[in-house]
Write a structure and sequence with these properties.
- By secondary structure, the protein is of the alpha/beta class.
- The chain has a domain of 311 residues: ABC transporter type 1, transmembrane domain (ABC transporter transmembrane region fold), CATH 1.20.1560.10.
- The strands form three sheets. Strands 6-9-10-3-11-12 form a six-stranded mixed β-sheet. A four-stranded antiparallel β-sheet has the order 2-1-4-5, with no helix packed on it.
- The relative contact order is 0.08.
Length: 578
């Protein structure tokens, strides 16, 4: 699991090597201290060394302490640099991977879960790396060296200690073995909590409009309590580690003091040696406790690593086709659906679209209408390969969209989605998403064509007006017009508008439609709309019903032969009369 994450330490190899080396030096200094103290007691105090010897060995102790402090500070710095660099690389790799995901891939994980994985899960691994670069080297060295010194000093006393170590190790191992699944469950509960919070914040206006704060509080409380209970369950298991360790620790100390005291009375051991021996016991037991805490973080990091690797190992549902960019057909705007069927992964399993055959000539103005949920958005989402067809083929300029490099395909297409998304930044920055190198004149022209120029210039800062995240400081109609201007500035061969003029009045919509013919040249226009007034002037109107095309024709033809179209028209006319 962790082996797959090792490459992300790239760029911080020096820090990850220096940190453990410095930890080893720090540990050696600390292990020498009890030996020096034993000499001070036995030779300087109880022996013939006197004050000069005590001062000399005191200077050695001071030097060891200063060197240990220096190496400790540097090892902490290098381990922090290495772990944070590792975390940054891993976050970058995950973000880049997510950018390659199709809509289906994102639906599979959910945006809330992906955010948790990029933040909390990576933090768990990063914390383990910080600790691991120090503790995984410090604790074993301290344990092994201290044990060897203890054996060299007195085998029988060391056996007292050896008797309790297996109890400590087995207890810690048992607790760790049952905790891994709980940590995985905990991260899943955290996903659910973030999903609840994200949904609430995105829909906060709807919550307030329907006075559903109490309902949302109860829903959040349920997710929060679920996370809390899982966390308590994990904590309950881990709280047993410290009491077990302390009991073993105290039993070992009591045993050593008992037998060591007998040795001193008998004259077979010096006081300084017993002090030194007890100091090494402290080192041994502390190192075991450090290993236990490191294992705690290892188990948690392992659960998080599995979730991160799952994202990194996911092959994007949509990948570049085999066609070479130089051999792609000219961007003219032709679109053809050949016996296309489509269903959503994880949905009911039924086809959203079935047997779709539709040919759109370059430069045509095509409208798609139909009831809610009949697959209008699903149909146009197949053109830029937001999803892939389950059956049949979608052709753009005569070539199957699955053969295109994804970026080359989407460069030909401008799209205004149902949800009009603006990013935090200025109006200028948002519009230049369509064409980063567009001139000021082109920017103004696109804004005028989308009927956005006048309201943009009504702001004191004009094009440099700052848009808040999600475009919350502009109206729905203004947001739609900015999104249309952004797509038009791209000057695509195919412009798709998915119900993108629903928030503007009919007069403004008519001006935008007229601007298409003047500004977009020979571009193919595909519009999804609910209003007949929006589609009646289209070259071709496609009526979707259930999962198939019910009829295709111009306004007059459909009024004559399509009952569905007439019903839509009459219902809207009645609404106008009322």
């Amino acid at each position: 699991m962790f082996k797959k994450l090792f490459p992300f330490i790239k760029g911080y190899e020096r820090q990850t090597v220096l940190a453990p080396l410095l930890v080893i030096l720090e540990t050696i200094c600390e292990l020498l201290v009890p030996l020096v103290m034993a000499r001070i007691i036995d030779v300087g105090i109880h022996g013939s060394g006197g004050t000069p010897y005590i001062l000399k060995m005191g200077a050695v102790l001071l030097a060891l302490a200063l060197f240990a402090m220096l190496t400790g500070v540097l090892s902490t710095k290098f381990s922090s640099d290495g772990s944070y660099g590792f975390g940054a690389n891993l976050r970058g790799a995950m973000f880049n991977k997510i950018q390659e995901f199709s809509f289906a891939d994102i639906d599979k994980f959910s945006s809330a879960s992906l955010i948790t994985r990029m933040t909390n899960d990576i933090s768990n691994i990063q914390n383990f790396v910080t600790m691991g670069l120090r503790m995984l080297f410090r604790a074993p060295i301290m344990l092994i060296v201290a044990l060897l010194v203890c054996f060299s000093m007195d085998v029988k006393l060391t056996l007292v200690l050896i008797a309790v170590i297996p109890v400590m190790v087995i207890s810690a191992g048992f607790i760790m073995s049952i905790a891994h699944k709980l940590f995985e469950l905990y991260q899943t509960k955290l996903d659910a909590l973030n999903a609840s919070l994200q949904e609430n914040l995105i829909a906060i206006r709807v919550v307030k409009a329907f006075v559903r704060e109490a309902h949302e509080k109860a829903k959040f409380k349920a997710a929060n309590d679920d996370l809390t209970n899982t966390g308590i369950s994990v904590a309950f298991r881990f709280i047993w580690i410290m009491p077990v360790m302390m009991v073993c620790f105290n039993v070992a100390i009591a045993g050593v003091l008992w037998f060591g005291g007998q040795y001193i009375i008998e004259g077979t051991m010096l006081t300084g040696d017993l002090y030194s021996f007890i100091s090494y016991i402290f080192n041994i037991l502390i190192s075991i406790m450090m290993l236990a805490m490191t294992l705690f973080h290892l188990v948690r990091a392992s659960a998080s690593a599995g979730r991160i690797v799952e994202v990194l190992d996911t092959a994007p549902d949509i990948c570049d086709g085999s066609a070479d960019t130089a051999s792609l057909p000219e961007a003219r705007g032709g679109v053809e659906f050949c016996d296309v069927s489509f269903r959503y992964t994880g949905g009911s399993g039924d086809d959203v679209l079935s047997g779709i055959n539709l040919k759109i000539e370059p430069g045509e103005f095509v409208a798609i209408i139909g009831g809610t949920g009949v697959g209008k958005s699903s149909l146009v989402n197949l053109i830029p390969r937001f999803y892939d067809a389950a059956g049949g083929a979608v052709l753009v300029d005569g070539l199957d969209v699955r053969e295109y490099p994804v970026s080359a395909l989407r460069e030909r297409i401008g799209m205004v989605l149902q949800n009009n998304v603006l990013f935090s930044g200025t109006i200028r920055e948002n519009l230049l998403w369509g064409a980063p190198k567009a001139s000021e004149a082109e920017l103004i022209e696109a804004a005028k064509s989308a009927q956005a120029y006048d309201f943009i210039m009504s702001f004191p800062e004009g094009f440099d007006t700052f848009i808040e995240q999600g475009g919350v400081n502009v109206s729905g109609g203004q947001k739609q017009r900015l999104c249309i201007a952004r797509a038009m500035l791209k000057n695509p061969a195919i412009l798709i508008l998915d119900d993108s003029t629903s928030a503007v009045d009919s007069a403004t919509e008519a001006k935008i439609r007229d601007a298409f013919s003047k500004s977009m040249g020979s571009a193919t226009i595909i519009i999804i709309a609910q209003r007949i007034s929006s589609v009646r002037y289209a070259d071709k109107i496609v009526i979707l019903d259930d999962d198939h095309i019910a009829d295709i024709g111009c306004h007059d033809e459909l009024m004559e032969r399509s009952q569905i179209y007439r019903e839509i028209y009459q219902s809207q006319q009645e609404g106008v009369k009322q």
